Each structure stands twice: as structure tokens, then as C-alpha cells.
Write the C-alpha cells for this entry.
Amino acid sequence: MRKFIFVLLSAAIVIGVTGCSGTRAKEKMAECVFPNSHESAPGWICDQPVEGIPVAATGSAAKSDAGYDFMRQMAATGARVQLTQNMRVQVQNMIKQYVETTGAASKETVDRVNTSVTKQITDESLQGTKIVKSIIGPDGTLYVLVGLDEAGAQKLTEAAIKTSMYNDQAAWQQFRAQKGQEELAADIAKQRVEFNKQRGN
């Protein structure tokens, strides 16, 4: 009887250990999977940050008889639309950080400036972005990662701020203080470094 209980307990322990190992393996594999699939995918499919690409977005295109080039173009277009939104959020945060650091401007002015700047960041202004990575999912869907490196992101930020200054001078009056457009745009764009540190990039 004791032998039977010992064997039973041993079997239960083995099953428990195997079950835990299997669960851990599944959890590790399930960190990022392709949509509508259990197959593991690279982290950028799940919007995880990519080293060296501070601003990025993923786009996808379903398998099409029109061919790979068409799918690539559609996926890139979708990614740029998302990237536009990501850039707007980052620039808004940079402007807010600049205001908090310098103590310049009121909330109303900040809101006006944010609206003015983000109008300058459109998917058309991001046409110069590059497809950084691409992969075909298990169902034939093409996924692409479109992004800007640090220099490209800073250049776009400064350009959007300068255009906003030119188009809405009244909103920027309190921000400018003693600084010229070039210096102020560069100062705000530098806030990206702090923003990325906070995100863990």
C-alpha cells in the first residue's frame, strides 16, 4: 500500500513539474504572437520598442492577389498613419516637458501650441520614413515596421515646430521669450531624450 501511495505521489509530482514547465514555456512563447495565431512573433509586432528607432509603428496588409509590392505599400501606408499619431503624442509631451522645465506659458497657450504643432505632423510629412523590418505572418499577412531614427525624428520635430511658429505666431509669443525660432525648436526637440529615458528606451 505504501509503495502504491509513493508511486502515485511521484507521478503527481512529475505531472505537476511538467505542467509548470509547459505553462512557463507557453507564457514565454506567448510574449508576442501574430494576430489570430499562437505562433510567436518578433516583439515589434506587439509594439515593443526597437533599439535605435525612437519613433516607430507597425502596419499590416492581408495577403492579396495584387502581389507583394502592393501589400508592402498598403502596410507601409497604415504604419505611417499610426506613426503620425505616435509623433504627435511625443511632440506634445516634449512641449509639455519644456514648459514644466522652463515655467513658460499657461495651460491655454500650451494647448494652442500643441494643436498648432500637431497639425503640421501628417502622414504626408512622414513619407520620408523607412521600412525598418518586415515579416509575413502564418496566414500570409505582411507586417512592416516603419520608423524614424533619432536624427530623423528630431529633424521632423524641429520642422513641425518652426512651421507652427510661422503659421501661428500669437500662440508662440510666450514660448519664444528671448529665444529665436532655431534655438527654441532645438531646445524642445531635445526633450525627446528625456521622454525616451522615461519610456525605458
User: Anything to note?
Assistant: Residues 3-18, 20-29 have pLDDT under 50 and may be disordered. The radius of gyration is 24 Å. The first helix runs from residue 2 to 29.
